[in-house]
Amino acid sequence: MNRSCLALAVAALAAMAAPVQAQAGTLSLDLNATEAAENGCRATFVGQNGLDAPIERLSFEVVLFDGQGLVTRMLALDFGEMATGRTKVLQFTLPGEGCQDIGRVLINDVAACEGPEDASICLDALTTESRSGITFGL
Question: Among 2.60.40, 1.10.10, 2.30.30, 2.40.70, what is the CATH number of 20-137?
Fold first, then answer.
């Protein structure tokens, strides 16, 4: 293999291996994985703060829906501090629900957004993704 092809292959591999970063000006949350827990469903979230300012405390009101679209529970998930440019992984046990019984997790509202001058940015700049079998979003 000549040097230019080798350099191109190395660059392509490096790009694929790089972690996904939050776009500038966004706050991203990924419902990354779920697994059965003793008293419910353990959900793993990956969050990234791409905003210009750190968030001292971030909490969301979430709603759980079953597979038929019926609301089964409302609860608050406290993500704590979200430093600028950092990735944070948190796990929450969604009580009383088996993972197979949850069809959707909805971010209903922001329960707390402390730090930014304009607290509405925590919802306005939010992007969501789900890598689990459960729909997650606004």
Answer: 2.60.40
| Sign of the dihedral defined by the CA atoms of residues 18, 33, 94, 68, in that order | positive
Q: Which residues pair with 40 in a beta bridge?
A: 37, 95
pTM of the predicted protein model: 0.79
Query: pLDDT tens digit string along 28-62?
Result: 999 999 999 998 999 999 999 999 999 999 999 99
Q: Which of 91, 90, 79, 106 is nearest to 40 (CA)?
A: 91
Domain residue spans in the chain? 20-137
pLDDT tens, 68-114?
999 999 999 999 999 999 999 999 999 887 999 999 999 999 999 99
